[in-house]
Amino acid sequence: MTPERPTVLVVDDIPANLSVLLDLLTGAGFAVLVADGGERALLQVSHRRPDVILLDAMMPGLDGFETCRRLKANPATGDLPVLFMTALTDTAARLAGFAAGAVDYISKPFEPEEVLARLRVQLELQRTRRALEREIRLRQNAEAQLERSLSQAVLVVDADGHLVFCARGARELLHRYLGDFDPDAALPPALLAGQSVALPPGLVYLRARRFAETGKHIGGDEGLTVLLLKEEAPDPSLMLSTALDLTEREAEVLYWVAQGKTSPEIAIILGSALKTVKKHLQRVYEKLGVETRTAAALRATEILGRDSVDHPR
Description:
With 313 residues, this protein is α/β, with parallel strands linked by helices. It has twelve helices and eleven strands. Helix content is 50%, strand content 17%.
């Protein structure tokens, strides 16, 4: 791909000067725009933005000084480097150009090497400034992301599951759920696999997810992985299963019984046959040592209510 040529806008009311500069700059590889006065120059930059402007100081109508002031006052063009072209040799005239916003000046009659040298200096300064601005934006974005990350439970692990970075919130959660967690040891495989880690007596609260749901690793598949720890509301049926030694389906049936659902309604909710629901419910009675639906529901409500007190969110 061919690099885009730098664009120079030349503003001068004398055709001979425009012709000389047009030949010089195009021959040196620049793209050239021309304007024969200040008003046309302002109109030109509103349609196509140049990289640098060569601006004649003394022109009829809107002179170079006022043209430069207007360029600098416009946020869309205020950063464009302007080089005055002048035959004036007194210091006051040159200072007036700098006061208007010019970054340099070129003396008339033109010395081709001087024109090209001053232009290239300004273009290089502009490239350097833009590169610095990009780097600053990247750093600011990175700092903002890091700040957001530190307010969340973010951690970074290597391919073996060992911690490389752990935000304070993540460290607190790991100690809360893993108890004697050793920061130098690998995280539990279940947590790395996205499975839940429970607080006693086995209630589901913590899960590790890929940060921002990108599903990507840092540095490739064998590199680092960013994880976000999330506390999740416990699954009521899993709470019942753990506390009462029920199968998953038995716990689901008991949960809906506690919610006041009839057996036909539970069959619809679970997509099961009514006979199957009744069979699960009978096993629940046997395991809980109760004989009635009401007694089973009260036992389930007791378990669910106790969890909300013992493990507040």
